[in-house]
Write a structure and sequence with these properties.
The protein is an alpha+beta fold and 121 residues long. It has two helices and three strands, in the order ααβββ.
């Protein structure tokens, strides 16, 4: 009876390791983008909580957003990127933006973020 070897060859192991390294490197490059997104979402939540149930306006909401962006030192979005709309029950604040990180050379990883909150009068 023949002995049958089982397992991964050296070349197979090197290829699997290369793929794993590429995926891990992509995760390392994209992690700061998600951390920045968490801070942008926190700005939305903080502004919503501060303005909830108060007599507010679009100008007051934009001012509050600008102040929170300055406090958090967020540079990926500006106050003009936030869309503030009057609704029947209050105000709707939303933000859509893209962020990118260099992967290799001129190859980039692009993320798209879309968040929204409601402020009730």
């Amino acid at each position: 009876m023949r002995n049958r070897q089982q397992g991964v060859t050296t070349i197979g192991f090197i290829l699997m390791a290369a793929v794993a390294v590429l995926v891990i490197f992509g995760g390392i490059r994209i992690f700061p983008l998600y951390m920045e997104h968490i801070r942008v979402a926190k700005v939305l939540e903080d502004v919503s909580a501060a303005q909830q149930g108060t007599k507010t306006s679009v100008a007051k909401i934009r001012t509050a957003i600008g102040k929170r962006l300055n406090i958090e030192a967020i540079n990926v979005v500006d106050t003009k990127d936030f869309i503030v709309k009057k609704t029947r029950t209050g105000y709707s604040i939303s933000v859509k933006y893209e962020a990118s990180a260099s992967y290799f050379g001129n190859l980039y990883l692009v993320t798209k973020f879309d968040d929204a909150v409601e402020i009730q009068d």
